Amino acid sequence: xxxxxxxxxxxxxxxxNDLGMVDGVTTNPSLIxxxxxxxxxxxxxxxxxxxxxxxAETVALDAEGMxxxxxxxxxxxxxxxxxxxxxxxxxxxxxxxxxxxxxxxVTLCFSANQALLAAKAGATFISPFIGRLDDIHLTGMDLIxxxxxxxxNYGFExxxxxxxxxxxxxxxxxxxxxxxxxxxxxxxxKKLASHPLTDKGLEAFLADWKKTGQSIV
Length: 217
Ligand code: G3P
Known about the structure:
By secondary structure, this protein is an alpha/beta fold. It has a single domain, classed as Alpha-Beta Barrel (TIM Barrel). Helices cover 53% and strands 17% of the residues. Strands 1-2-3-4-5-6-7-8 form an eight-stranded parallel β-barrel, surrounded by six helices. It is globular and about 70 Å long. Bound molecules: SN-glycerol-3-phosphate. SN-glycerol-3-phosphate binds at residues 6, 26, 28, 129, 131-132, 163-164, 166, 183.
């Protein structure tokens, strides 16, 4: 499973990237707003740091506007992935931009039918939002399973990018189902290393070690 980081915070990306945990980055207008940075500047910095795809999102609502913005964003770096929303216009923009040879991430996907359309429009990535479905008392993970089944039934190459990941359980379940990629905030990725039994075991080892009176260095 590829790990993308869902943030526009440079320091957080760097820490994970130095550990080899970053296969790509996803941003959106809310994350750019949160960073307080200029979209071009911060996206360029991220693209220079990270080898993999870096999603930058368009904000136009019509296909022509999305295509113009997408082409402009693609000038930032060769590893830009243009992110467009899953609307009818977004699908038109996806078709044109993927026809240009660009990577396209179709975002705000909430149904398997939407995912089917994105694959047919040539999307490189489809972003189903798990957490936001859970927020309205549906089971977001069911959508990942449905899309996996449909894409495998027909051999679609569009990669399932599990998004709106809020917990370590989301990561594990998406990996078990076979999502190609997951994107999560840095704090969720760091939490994957934690387990209460690890902490408890470490505490016991250190207490016993103290009793030996030894030191390693
Ligand atoms: O990748 C999409 C993500 O940024 C949305 O996450 O937590 O705002 O639903 P969230």
